[in-house]
Every structure is written in structure tokens, then in C-alpha cells.
Amino acid sequence: MGKRIRVDKLLAHMGLGTRSEIKRAVKMGMVAVDGRLVKDSGLIVDPDAAEVTYDGTPVIYRDVVYFMLNKPQGVISATEDGRERTVIDLLEPQDRLRDPFPVGRLDKDTVGLLLLTNDGQLAHELLSPRKHVEKTYEALVLGEVGDDDKQAFNAGVTLDDGYETMPAKLQIGRYEQREDGMYSEISLTIMEGKFHQVKRMFEAVGKQVVYLKRVAMGPLQLDDSLPEGSYRELTEEEVDLLRSHKRSGQ
Length: 250
Fold this sequence. Notes:
Layout: E1 5-6, H1 7-13, H2 19-27, E2 31-33, E3 36-37, E4 44-45, E5 52-54, E6 57-59, E7 66-71, H3 93-96, E8 101-102, E9 111-117, H4 120-127, E10 135-142, H5 147-155, E11 169-178, E12 181-190, H6 197-204, E13 208-217, E14 220-221, E15 231-233, H7 236-248
Parallel strand pairs: 9-13
Antiparallel strand pairs: 1-4, 2-3, 2-5, 5-6, 7-9, 7-15, 8-9, 10-12, 10-13, 11-12, 13-14
């Protein structure tokens, strides 16, 4: 037997109204459990076993939520802030009800993949320094990135505070000559998440990151069809990938 919950609380958690609004909906005959109209909004149900409908539409109870966000520039990776717009502000009201939080952080001006969930255990495993979860970024760098940089990153570079990074995988794409210098498109996979790490790694080799986008975290790949500022729920397959990744410790 699974977790048991009042039907009004279940519906409120799923964003279908306040408890008082749901109480009115019950009185109007809009709520049914296993095909029978509910007369008491305090009815206790097993959300995993009962078939709950609201105005004829099945309600799937989600205790844990997983969202993939394509983070835009200008928002911060926090749950709340008095001055800045946060990634939680990008969610629909009903999707904020389960109190999701960002797993790790992306800088305010960095875009791309950010996982939002209320699964604290999974978040802890993905962020644990012991797990060395890979994170892949695409960047535009001011400066001509070459094989010497690839070798330096592969060996680990020393940041401005003396920290020596773990080996990182640098791939070089195309170059573009502009008025202010040569620009390089690159892909970089790191296994840590130090503050401003990618930017500081390139500073360590005398170059400047001007655009940064995260495209993967562990086995989770950014959905190419997701516009910046948009998000969607993870598929069951994506959640399973993250969980199996967590168990394997890869």
C-alpha cells in the first residue's frame, strides 16, 4: 500500500485549486474516485492505486517532479531572490507547488541545461564531488584555442585561487576572425562544478569565454527542440537514466 492522502490535498498539490475551491468542486459533483462521485473532500485515497478524476479528466499524482529547463541569460539559479528573477519564476504556478529547486547552478549569463526537481537524494548524488558527474558545455571563446590548450585541459589547469582542476575533455570546432580578434567554438566536458569554472579554466590559458551553454549533465542531454526560457518534464526514460547513473556512480 502506498502513501495515503486526502483527496482535496491531492488535487491542491496538482494545481487544481485551493482546498476551499476543491471543496466546492466536490459539492458540484466534479470529483470522482474509481468512477464514483466523491461526497467528502476529506476522503482518504491511495494516489498510486486510486483513479481520481477532476471534471472528467484523470489526475496523475506526482509526489516527485523532474523538469528540464533551457535556462536563458539574465535569470539566476536560485529558488528565490529579493531583486533578481530566478529559474523558479519561469515555472507555471502549478509546477512550483512541489517546491522544485535547481540541481547545481548556472551563472546568470550562462544558458542551457538545468535540472529542477524536489528529489533531494538524486540531486545530492548528481552534485556529489565523489561521483565526478560529467557536465558538457559549448562555448564561444575569444582567442585561438589550439592543441596546446587541449593538452593543458587534459592534464588539469591551475585556477586563479591555486585549485588544480581534474582532467577535462576539450574539443575544438570552427574559428571565426572578427575585428577584435579570433574566436573559437569549443565543447568542454568537466567533472567538477567550481564557481565560474569553465570561464576560469580559459582565463588560466589566456583566453576569454564570451558565450557559454551547458548541453549535458551526466546522461541527461539538453532537448534541442526546447527554446531558451522553456522547460518540460523529464520522460520516464530520462529519469531512469539519471537514477541508473546515480546507482552506478559513473
